[in-house]
Amino acid sequence: MAENSSKYYVPESSPWPLFGSIGLFLIAIGAANFIQQSTQFGQNTLRADGTWGQYVLMAGVLWMIATMFFWWRDTIKESLTGLHNEQLSGSYRQGMIWFIFSEVMFFGALFGALFYARWLIIPWLGGAGNNAMTHELLWPGFQAMWPLTTTPDGRTTQVMGAWGLPAINTAILIVSSITLTIAHHALIVGERGRLILFQGITILLGLFFLSLQVYEYYHAYHELGLTLEAGIYGSLFFFLTGFHGIHVTMGTLMLIVCFFRILKGHFTKENHFVYEASAWYWHFVDVVWLFLFVVVYWL
């Protein structure tokens, strides 16, 4: 295969994109039903007894894990057999850049929803400008403040402070970006021991972040009354932090795969784009968290 490396490699037909689409469909349908059922009838915990959504969601997650395993296996085989040349490497870089750009737009929409509610809708409901009549008709007792700790039906919640677990998680992600950069440099200069050490530290930091976020959600639900039912503040809080947590999970999984490939000696200083792409993604996730920490927790 190596003698054909000067030609652009076109991979064979693969079933994995179709399988991936099926998995994403199952996750979307299952998650939507699970969340919708778990917030009905004033429930204060995320559970969906007697519904099918949780089972579809779990099936979709397992399906996606299996799909990624086999898809990545095929891609790794292509790389190790010399099919990936400089031209294909350039295409991979362009693809990763556009993928991260699409993620920027995704989070931009989520932050846009927060800004729209906070700086436009809340003053409008509070009667700012020429909206005094609207204020009296829709919500006479409404006070224009953020975050909203009282819902229209009278439920109250507490605010998640910035200087507890969120600040710790911010420090964790900042340190993880530093350790990953050290590991990346070690790969380039050929220091295998330092590469393995700091790659492992980065993975542990990612897992620690996710563990603290799970505890933060438990604390929010059971001690603060901050749930998906807690009006627009609760919805946006879990929407933004939850999707970021999913991205941290994806990034951690990518780093774990790279870690095992490092142990097998798959990467060289000339050929390690998949590692570089994982690093790009991790740094992007860290930057998103910094914006999220400031806008959601701090301000």
Output the keywords:
299 residues; mainly alpha; elongated; Four Helix Bundle (Hemerythrin (Met), subunit A); 2 domains; Helix Hairpins; 0% strand
Short description:
The protein is mainly alpha-helical. It has helices at 16-38, 53-80, 86-125, 132-138, 165-189, 192-224, 231-263, 273-298. It folds into two domains: 15-83, Helix Hairpins; 99-298, Cytochrome c oxidase, subunit III, four-helix bundle (Four Helix Bundle (Hemerythrin (Met), subunit A), Up-down Bundle).
Please report the total strand number as a whole number.
0
Radius of gyration: 23 Å
Strand content: under 5%
CATH superfamily annotation of the largest domain: Cytochrome c oxidase, subunit III, four-helix bundle
**How many domains, in number, for the residues?**
2
Summarize model confidence as the mean pLDDT: 83
Q: Which class do the helix and strand fractions yield?
A: mainly alpha
The topology string of helices and strands comes to HHHHHHHH
Counting DSSP H or I runs of 4 or more residues, the number of helices is: 8
| Gap from first CA to last CA | 56 Å
CATH topology type of the largest domain:
Four Helix Bundle (Hemerythrin (Met), subunit A)
Q: Describe the sheet with the most strands.
A: none
**Helix share, percent:** over 70%
Under the CATH scheme, the architecture of the largest domain is Up-down Bundle
Q: Which descriptor suits the 3D outline?
A: elongated
CATH class division of the largest domain: Mainly Alpha
Uncertain spans, ≥5 residues at pLDDT below 50? 41-48
